[in-house]
Amino acid sequence: MHPRARSVLVVAAVVLVLAAPVAGLAPAAAAAGDAAETLGPGDDGATSGDAPMGVDAQEDDDGERNATSDEPGPDVGSANVTVLQTPEVVGQPLVVEATTTNEGTEAGRKVVQFEVEHEIVDRAVFVLQPNETKTVTFRHVFETPGNKTFEVDSGVNRFVTVEERRPELSVSSVRVEPASVEAGGDVTVTALVRNTGYANGSLPVALELFGEVAGVKNVTLATGESAEVTFTRSVHTPGSYEATVANASAEFRVTGAESTASARTTDSVLESASETPGFGPVVALAAMLAAALLIVGRRA
Prior knowledge:
alpha+beta, Immunoglobulin-like, rod-shaped, disordered C terminus, Ig-like_fold, PGF-CTERM protein, membrane, PGF_CTERM
């Protein structure tokens, strides 16, 4: 080839190469490189800041599990209070118990306070293991009467009325032995006296016959004690009678002819048999006759 022609071909090839980008004839590799530069390394078509697929679902799953699962730790609630004994009078104890359970997954500390009249009088401190239940008991004795308040574990304010200690003596029964007696014979009236109160006390026990007081005895009993009080009398007039002591009474019968024997008293109660109907007016007449004879004798 002629040297001049070869030079023309070389110039034409150079011009063709330089003109290719302007005509849109860029190689595919250049287009691919531009696309890679636009998306960026690792991009999959998602917008900037989006997490990869499947990450959001995993976070949702984790959040739901956290929301439904129990948080670890102790769960010690308020105590359940039971009143075991309520005092009626001064000196009797108030007894209460408090039960607490730890429903958590770890050990927990519990403090239970016992308040009386808005003041802490006792407390219990303990540790509960998971699912453990513990019961503590509190006691308090009131020294004065009145309306009292108490509270356990900062719960319900409760009330109790405490009375003063007093004796309570009463006659519970009366019996007469024998139930039937010959005129002039002895009958024994027995009264059972009890002290159902909360203090020692005394009671005058009076026997009534024929609507009048025929004798009185004083009885002293300690709390919870009982005693029998007896009166022995002889009745000379036949008939049916009723012996009464306090609110209790018993009947007896005197049979046969009216007795002229003197009335006899075998208990230590001071009484006047001659002034009591049925106890023989002959006795009083005999006493008057004896006194008259004594006066005549002294004059002689």
